[in-house]
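Anyone? Bumping this.
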Amino acid sequence: MSLPIWLQDEYQKIVSLKQNQALSHALLIIGPQGAGQEVLAASLSMDLMCERSSPACGVCHSCELMKANTHPDYYCVDGQESSIKVDQIRTLSKQVSQKAQIGQTKVLHLIHSQNMNLNASNALLKILEEPPQGTYFLLTAFQAASLLPTIKSRCLLVNVPTPNMGEVQQWLATNYPNKNLESLFWLTKQPYELAYLSDSGKDAFYLEYPNKLEECIDSFSNLPAFLKSVDSKNILDFIKATQALCHQGLIFSASNEVVEEHRILCEKMLAQFGVHKLLSLYQSLQQLKEKTGLTNLNAPMQFKYEMNKWFN
Ligand SMILES: [Zn+2]
């Protein structure tokens, strides 16, 4: 597996630690969302599991099982969809306390580990304090702040850097040659965020969004049709897109520096709302985003209400 260039330094450092038998049993890999912490962790998992070498040989029994995603000593829990619960950690704790089935090593990968609730965090802390033999913990996160300090202090902190623009463009050209993902830089410049949007088919929604919003500014009568498709599944996409475009408008008002294709939209937004209203809209959306999913708030309805209030 070839790692993208911006992940290679950290990867090499960890490989040397392992070769010198100085690698911590717990790693916290953090970075901006979409910078590739999961990709780095996946590569490291392969290496840790390989029975022959580091970097992984790619052909031994363990490597084959890892590639097929069926290695019995590799455990993965993902907190993206819903928070990681204490029961999940307890189950993992039982599993990793057993002897490894294939080689000597077990790997436990917690994805989006910032989404662990307090009980789960405490349960994990207990395991980290007395780790079972031959077990590595790879925690990936994009908001280290929301992890317990006691967990952080038990881990080797690995910082995934933000790739520079040239690296992102090169990576997109290699991996998504027929996609127009650079047109979504107003939303995110993180390569794996862009990859996710493309793989999930959401890129079309976001590519169209600036035009749709512009139509609503041109005429309030376009707003009902625009908001018709908002539901509980796509609400965060609507919020994120609107917020990112408000942000573009705010950048434009301060520095005039904005991608060329958004210049007219930004001018229209500022003419319609003015800077203060645009900032308030941005902040209302931020609050709505934070509350979405946490409470029984009807977020789609609240979003429609906000949009009607601002656009009218
Ligand atoms: Zn191998």
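Late reply, but here is one note on the structure posted above: The domain at 5-159 is CATH 3.40.50.300 (Rossmann fold).
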